[in-house]
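Chapter summary example.
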Amino acid sequence: QVQLVESGGGLVQAGGSLRLSCSASDHSFSTYATGWFRQAPGAEREFVAAITWSGDRTYYTDSVKGRFTISRDDAKNTVYLQMNSLKPEDTAVYYCAADPSEWGSTLTSKYEYEYWGQGTQVTVSS
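The structure predicted for these 126 residues follows.
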């Protein structure tokens, strides 16, 4: 079973940047598609970005396109989410998740992911 740990969250002013990291406990992580989701208070957990196990395709929700970039470093068992031009509406707890069976998955639904981290808080002040 893969354990995921997020880090890199914090408080930043609007327009600023943060880089989130999702580190895995097992190298099998390199064969899993990985996604980032976020959940604001009182809201549903929503898709943010995903990357295939091979890294050849990435997906983003419309509201972060052009501002966020997902990438992976399999040598470090880590997936990153670079967040630029942050807005107050990006404030949420951010979770990474891993999908061992990428085949047939859209990678945009939280129900497709098997492993989840504990989340890291991102707060963007105006």
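To summarize the output: The chain has a mean pLDDT of 96.
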